[in-house]
Q: What sequence folds into this?
DNA sequence: ATATCTGCAAAGGATTTGCACGAGT
DNA sequence: ACTCGTGCAAATCCTTTGCAGATAT
C-alpha cells in the first residue's frame, strides 16, 4: 500500500511561514490572527489541526508548560525558554546558558534580557507499574 | 481594623486531611471524590475554592505543569516530581536526587521507582520591558 | 449583625471533534 | 473515485463565578 501523503495546503504553508517569521512563541490564537491577515477565511480549528500536525511531524515544537495556553515554536533546536512572570512574554535562552542562569537567580542575564527569578524542573519517566507491564506483557 | 479571619470549616478541614493522607498528588476531581466519601454533599466549586485558598496561604502546593489538570500536594518541602509518561502518575523525588537523575536519563532511579527518560526545565524572570516599567515608573 | 463560606448551576476559556463540502492525485 | 484537508459550529473538558441561603463569631 502507498504511504499516506500529507499535502502542503496553502493553510499549512502559511501557518508554518508565519511561525517561522516570529520569535514570539505565539499561542494558537495569535497564530490564528497572524494567518488571517493573509487568509481571512481560515478557521481556528484548522490552525489547531495544522499546528498539531506540524508538531507530530517534528517540524515545530509545542510548548505546553508556559502558562494556560499552548505556545508554538518553529525553532526545534534545543534551547530553553524564559517566561516573564509579569507579562507572560516568552524568550529564548541558548542551551549552554542554563547553568549560568540557574546560578544567577535574581541576577540579570545579559544573554536573554530577562532577569531570572526562578525556575521549574520536572522529570519524566516510566513508573514501576508501567515498567512491569512492559516486561511481563 | 481587625485582620480577616478565615474559618476552618468542616469542608476545608477534610480537604486538607484528605490531601495530607495521600502521596498521589491528586487532581481537584480526585480530591472531590475522596472528600465526598466523608462529605457526600460537598460541591466541586468548594473543592476548587478551598484548594485555592490553601495554596494562597502557602499550606499546600499547586502543581500546574504536570499535565492538563492541576494537581495538589500537601507536602510543601522542596522536592521534585516525576511524571509517568504512560499513565500520568506523579511521584516524588528528594531535591538532592535531581542531579543524579538528570545524569541517569534512561536509567532506573532506585530512589523513586521511576525510570527517568527525560526532563523539562523552564526559567522564570522579568523581561527587559517590564523591568523598565518598574525602574522608570 | 456581619463577614465568611457553602451548594448549585451557569458561565468561561482553550481545545477538540463531527460533518458535509472542496481540492489534489 | 478516493483520500486528505477545510470551514463551521457544536461539544468537551477543566476551572471559575454569581447568587441566595447557611454558618460562625
A:
Amino acid at each position: 500500500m502507498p504511504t499516506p501523503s500529507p499535502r502542503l495546503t496553502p493553510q499549512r504553508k502559511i501557518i508554518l511561514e508565519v511561525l517561522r517569521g516570529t520569535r514570539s512563541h505565539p499561542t494558537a490564537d495569535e497564530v490564528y490572527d497572524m494567518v488571517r491577515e493573509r487568509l481571512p477565511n481560515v478557521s481556528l480549528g484548522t490552525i489547531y489541526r495544522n499546528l498539531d500536525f506540524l508538531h507530530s511531524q517534528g517540524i515545530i515544537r509545542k510548548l505546553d508548560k508556559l502558562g494556560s495556553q499552548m505556545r508554538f515554536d518553529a525553532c526545534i533546536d534545543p534551547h530553553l525558554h524564559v517566561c516573564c512572570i509579569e507579562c507572560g512574554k516568552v524568550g529564548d535562552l541558548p542551551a549552554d546558558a542554563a547553568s549560568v542562569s540557574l546560578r544567577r537567580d535574581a541576577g540579570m542575564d545579559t544573554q536573554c534580557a530577562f532577569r531570572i527569578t526562578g525556575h521549574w524542573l520536572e522529570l519524566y519517566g516510566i513508573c514501576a507499574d508501567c515498567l512491569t507491564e512492559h516486561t511481563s506483557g
Q: What stands out?
A: The two ends of chain A are 30 Å apart (CA to CA).
